[in-house]
Design a protein that fits this description.
With 140 residues, this protein is α+β, with helices and mostly antiparallel strands. The chain has 3 helices and 8 strands; from the N terminus they run ββαβαββαβββ. It has one domain: Archease, Possible Chaperone, Chain: A, domain 1 (3-Layer(bab) Sandwich). Strand 1 and strand 2 form a beta hairpin.
Amino acid sequence: MTRGHWELFSHPADIGIRGVGPTREDAFAQAATALTAVIADPEKIEPREAVVIVCHEEDDEMLFMNWLGALLYEMDTRRMLFRRFEIEAIEGGLRARAWGEPVNVEKHEPAVEVKAATYAGLKVRRDDAGNWLAQCIVDV
């Protein structure tokens, strides 16, 4: 297994996000960092305030979509960007804490707005080395 990481990947119309980690929850957290990176540099975001997010879904891919949708909702309604994520599995879903701060246009220099996570390119699975992968295309 490798240490978790996130990355963006190209798509003809939008942007792909991918998280990789030793657990499903780590992969989801890394994908959340990739989602943030589409908008702004995560290194510029201070993890000052925590927000609790709970998602319920039995299917891993649907849970991932629910997680990203809930995260986008929190970003939009709280006008925040998140940088640090802790996710734990719970019966039928996940409980997460996302740390971040209110958007400051001068400091964060947001590049685009992510409208939604899409089912295009959706994958949540383990690879041959035992690492978890969570990915999809986001609509910008």
